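Question (not urgent): is this output format expected?
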Amino acid sequence: MSTSDLDLDQLSPSERTALETYTSVTGQEITEAIPLLRRSQWNVQIAIAKFFDGEGPDPLEEARAALPQSPPPQVNRQTRNLMTEDITEQLSLAARTTDPAPRVDTQPEDQPTYRPPFIIALLFTPFNLFVPPLWDIVSFPTSTVQCHRKPGPPGARRNTTGRRSLGPKDTAARFIREFEEEHGSHPIPFLENGYNMAMEKAHRDLKFLMVILISPEHDDTNGWVRDTLLAPEVVEFINDPRNNLLVWGGNVRDSEAYQVANSLRITKFPFAAVIVHTPNVSSTAMSVVGRIAGLTAPAEFVNRLRTAISSNQEPLERIRSTRAEQQASRSLREQQDSAYERSLAIDRERTRQRREAEAAQQREEQEAADRQAAEEKRQRDLIQWKQWRFQSLRQEPGTDAKDAVRISVRLPSGERIMRRFASDAEIEELYAVVECYEELQAGETSAVSAPIGFDHQYEFRLVSPMPRAVYAVEDGGTIRDKIGRGGNLLVEPIVEDDEEEEEGTS
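Got this back:
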């Protein structure tokens, strides 16, 4: 079934919440999670238990399947084959060596703890001080009798007056704290989380989980902890990293440990069990592969642990090698993807640089074309201006004009302009004659108007060589006032002068 076949919009808000909770715990795909939740009536706890413990046959579906085909009535006669019964019993005993590891319903971590009002708590303070000790005195004979008979699983929930119910993580922390207060500092690495989380960690990390359950009411508990559990050889075996062993402990006075004890069908305390993932049962199954109940010598305790671990090590090694290969393939694929991404990044950078270079070249070419077009327009406007200015030049005075000014101007090409000017002619008139020299040589031209938007600038200066004097057009004034009745002038291009000044400065 594909994801498209599952319309998530058709799910109710409660079903969506159950789906999110289930997938966050198990990590299963949505296409497989929804059918399993539907078979579990959208009960998250039942679905999680089926995911980790394996989903057994559905009795209701089997009954429905058997309705159309009712078996014929049989004669009420029993036949027994002692040999077959003996073999069947042995097989059933062998099959019971790996029981499914149960899961328990625990108090949520975020469940608020009820605290009574201060006045009510103050009123009940005497009861809290005197009732628990009195209850211990009354229950002492009963517990003494229980110590001398074969312990079994409690038939009813024991009174836990004075012991507040906590979440799984807080309960584990309290167990570790009480264990240290009772037996001092110890090297047992108890997990600081709940039983279900310990199971998930063992399944995820492919490690063995040793569950230790103790009952303070049994006289053998302290001796077993001191002489067996904290024995040097047991501690060394537990802490050996080659054994891949996790340890979770619980006190049956707590709700979670009590449920675990009932689920494991414990018949004797103290108790230890070894739980491990059994891939030959299912891909998510956790099974109890070892049980150690009652007083046990340290050597026998270690031997049982070693037997349980060694007999179930090979399937885990296969899964570890498979995971290692998958991780190596994943790492290789990630390295290849990373190299491919780096190559793509380099190609993208080269493409970006090439595009930027092409864009810069296009801008330069456009700017050059714009400059060339502007220069061509300036040249056209300059020619038009010269023709227009030539038409507005004043007539040269005749030889009989006594107050005329005679000027000789030498051009950069070596040619010389000889012209007479009226005494009141402006210095700009002299500059215009030099600028329009070619038009003067050509003679008459057609009438033109001044170019629109053109600001003409003279690109030369008129200077007197001896003594040197510059007659700038922007200074204004008449030719007679500036130069006198006559003079010899030179034309100096302004651009060339600026370049010479820049060279001299550098």
